[in-house]
Fold each of these.
Amino acid sequence: MTLFAHWQHVNFALNKIETNMRVFVTGASGFVGSAIVKELSGNGHEVLGLVRSEKSAELLAAAGATPLLGDVNDPEILRRGIEASDAVIHTAFNHDFSQFKASCEADRKVIEIMGEALAGSGKPLVVTTGMGLLRYDRPVTEDDILNVKSDVIPRAATDEAANAIAAQGVDVYLVRLPPSVHGAGDHGFVPMIIGITKEKGESAYIGDGNNPWPAVHRSDAAALYRLVVEKRPALKVLHAVAEEGIPFREIATAIGTGLDLPVESKTGEAATAHFGWFEHFAAIGCVASSIQTREALGWQPAAPGLLTDIATAGYLTAS
């Protein structure tokens, strides 16, 4: 598809969308975003997906969605997508950890622009944030608020921006994703751990390895996003959590067993030497509940769990 033909197609689609609901999805070609596109399309909704490349636009069109080619940081592109849709799901985020703070501040700006475009429309906005930002000596619930600022933890910028536009009357939902959103094609934290394991020749965890990671399969997460825009529940913070907390030691053991490599505990300098910049994430400990989310949406996760996926979903053989 040429760029000119693409824009002709987009202009037509923006002016004539006739299905049950029109949902604008940012990050539509991403790991989570593409699952949401499939889930929405499979349930009778029209999807307008924001993508950055011609190749992604072609893949999105093949999946039955309408591609909108552009950058999520472009205010005009965002307004265009929002004006053409009945609901917005925001999953786009730059996961280049070498410029993490800048990426978080860019996400703040995107949400602020979305808030301006949505003001007075009554359309819902679903914003994606992280579960690992909240840590207590008990399961984190949907009632818990983030009590740390973005100058301490940069990722809090997303929550701060969502809360700010909600205070201005925009109908905002926060979906908290756990450290592992897993499934075939995952390029997130678990593949990073596997890459470190292959490089070091051993699988590792920190200390006793009892720090828990919540997890969810991406197809279950996608169903949650769909249910939010369909039901628009009174609950404004939702937890995409299928497994409340898997000890990191068990994740490391599943990886070591699958790769036939030793599994070792690391502490101090040895942990830093093994994990490098990833040490912070390897030490995350968070148990999270999704009871309120399940009750509000009737959401029932049904896909395989994380340890099963590590063994069967191609994680260990991916390059």
Note: The CA atoms of residues 12 and 282 lie 47 Å apart.
Amino acid sequence: MSKEKDVPDEKNRSVKNILLLGATGYIGGVLCRRFAQTQDFKVLALVHPSSNTEAIKPFCKEIIRPKEVQFSAEDVEAAIRKYDVKTIINLVWNKPLESTKEAQFEKDRIALEAALRSASAVSPDIHVITTSGNFSLITADGGRITETPPPKGFAKPEYLAWGESLSGVNLMKDALTEEYISKGGNASIVYPSSVYGPSLTRGSFWDFAIQQFITGKPHWGYEAFPPDFMTAWVHVEDLAECYIAVAQRGEKGGHYLAAPENLSISQMATFFAEAAEVKFQAPVFENKDNVVFDDSHTREVLQLEWKYQVVDEVKAWVERIKELGTYFLG
């Protein structure tokens, strides 16, 4: 038998259709490109009717636009059945801010519930990958933060008081996903830490957050971050590799944290200001709660190695923000 016959060709390779919700967002654009570069997946993007899809069009097998302003569970289910979707990734989150917490929760649960309900209606084998945030992993005592969610009823630490909407939305979505898993649903949660780096679509929340911290001028309606706010940071390309690994090797009920570098908002702002050549005197940082993010379990089970470091990449990040026209330091 010849060697050629032992190698599967393109037609015989098992390629899975993956449905992205939130494909035109900051992370979504990078995910479209990276999934399209794999040999395992074809990308289907379910977007709002008014979404600009020029940046992601080259990387998508199909771009699906519902008739209504907001896509529904019926739209997601129709896409699953038509394209034999095996994996759904929900990246839709928190835009723009609503006037009340209740209104924000109602808005942020729409896409997630559509994904979970649709997968349940079609097949228990469909893998729904939901997106949370490291805010929902922070315990009352601070300290070592891993992929394990805090217990129900835990008290958030005082330094997260400013982020009630951010942490509250994450916890609400986590609860919906955990309930789905407890009833036999095939879902897992990815917890990105603070995401930075150039994206082919639009800027991230952190573009504005870092700049407002440096200037002291609030943008997007958020309060300024406290100097001692501690988080971790992941480059958007590394995060994309994490999602791909979860789609390939993730297990039902899995929890995955992408948190390569522990840096306070003050430390990150210093890197950012230096790259932007802006004078900035960073507040003295004290990690009063001894917060350290540890994603070693995720790296082990998903066989991941983080490739990017803030100090090497922040200059390109700042240049991309300037290109997008969302740069307001000066």
Note: Residues 1-12 have pLDDT under 50 and may be disordered.
Amino acid sequence: MVNTIIHKADTRGHADHGWLNAKHTFSFANYHDPARIHFGVLRVLNDDTVAGGKGFGMHPHDNMEIITIPLEGDLEHKDSMGNSEVIRHGDIQVMSAGKGILHSEFNHNTDKPVKLLQIWIFPNKKNVEPRYDQITLNLNDRHNKLQQIVSPNPDDDGAWVHQDAWFHLGRFEKGNETEYKLKMNGNGVYAFIISGEATVAGNKLGARDGMGITDTEAFTINAETDCEILLMEIPMRAN
């Protein structure tokens, strides 16, 4: 029998630093909820808005797969591997922190905010060589269907990570119905509604609501309105 856990948008942690307005689905920084540390290997799901010209200075990470999905605006990235890039809506950035990396992230524009999702998942290999990957996807390939944006396989669609994880983005018109079939036995899925409303695995969700789904091989998504959805299929136990 399918099991679900719902995290409504207004129950997330919130930090407003003026230049940064951040919503935390899971415990992060000064937000700590013992019941919301992680979902499987999904450790962080941050919904950030960064003011024009502002950002995060150089800071370290290690042994984490970090996926960044810009929703609006342009994000400027620099790191200790020598990468200097701008990621925009339609791009997906993956950084394997591995044995250690430094990076910074700033709003590339001074006149408008940048909005992004930043996601951390525990890797299935520790202390790997740090790695940077950035891809640009065709937004039309997620119209009324799920577009794969992350996978474990460098030869598969999307960016790749050191984990048995598959991420998909879909933009659905009202009334559309789509089935998602899990790729690996024992995995769970965390669904995050970016915009609109949808019924996922029988549960109605609104914008910025999240839901963990376990103990199933497949489930259905019904678009109650025009909506955009992120699905993150991940192992429920760290290696």
Note: The first strand starts at residue 3 and ends at 7.
